Amino acid sequence: MEPWLGSEFGNPSSLYEEGRRAKAAIDEARETLAGRLGCLFGEIVFTSSGTEAANLAILGAALAHVDGPRRRVLFGAAEHHCVLHCEPLLARLGFRVELVPVDRQARTDLDALERSMGPDVLLGSFMHANNEWGTLQDVEAIGSILQRHGALYLLDAVQTLGSSEFGPRLDTLPVDLIAVSAHKVGGPKGVGALAVRSGIPIRPLIVGGGQEREVRGGTENVAAIIGFAAAVKAIREDDDSFKRAARDRFLGGVGSGFVPSADYTESDTLAGHAHGRFPGLNAESILIVLDRLGVSASSGAACSSGSLEPSHVALSCGWSPAEAAEALRFTFGHQTTLEEAIWAAERVLRAAEQVASARTIA
Ligand SMILES: Cc1ncc(COP(=O)(O)O)c(C=O)c1O
Prior knowledge:
By secondary structure, the protein is of the alpha/beta class. Helices cover 37% and strands 15% of the residues. The strands form three sheets. Strands 1-7-6-5-4-2-3 form a seven-stranded mixed beta sheet, with helices on both faces. Strands 8-9-13-10 form a four-stranded antiparallel beta sheet, covered by helices on one side.
């Protein structure tokens, strides 16, 4: 990325030589992304994030069909907020949003989806893998239901872009739009992309200079786009096996006190993902101790204006708010060593013990 932050300062929309070099570099990055997502060069739109990519797919499709007969949009109940929070804007545009329930593993209830379908559904958004549970969806089954009813399928593939086993592709999956983000594959934060199947009308949310084939205005973030492509190129075929080995070693280390939310030995879960809880122990308390011990982990809760909301994913999976407050998420990269996984497991156990004994004293 470095040259594109300093010495290479051309604007990709300019005709002069430095500009043409920047344009050529973006084109090369677009080619890389298109190769990864199994789509055409011209089907990639660079955005500022996965959030913007999902917003563009949903709201851009709605704007393109604002006078059409399809007035409903379906979202999986456990989608990311970048999907769910499109609801108020869709409502203003005259679309009704309906949530399709998920099972206890955060997987779309296919019967409920079938029942919700009709000729008035414009689009369905069902993520590839859930960012909290780490479970994969049956994209083939969802896609065939949506296709049968002529509805568009947005696949939020932010969690799977880096998977060497389940990489999302427009040429093999029955989907029309794929949203991805660079920072989930080791790229820079603040850049993402939307793959749009040719012929699908999407109206821009950002208008201006006509960049990205008139679908997303604004001078491109050249360095970030180059960094995104470099990160994609660095994904290796055996990455998932390293992530899985670290995750499994960790799960072995934390033992049976930690109750996983899914069967992470199954192949339909993300390789580097472990979500679960220590029953009776508050996740935030554990995370505070873990941070002190040098382990960076997450809970499912979203902290906004000082109040902790229980995760909508946990609630939609049938957990109580009390159980949701216990949810912990651990993720492992392909560079995480087995020693680090064991080291982390020891600290997680120590943190859980500290929180348990503090609770007993209280
Ligand atoms: C499933 C999913 N979708 C969308 C996003 C948003 O991507 P970004 O952080 O690039 O806006 C995330 C980020 O955590 C995610 O996990």
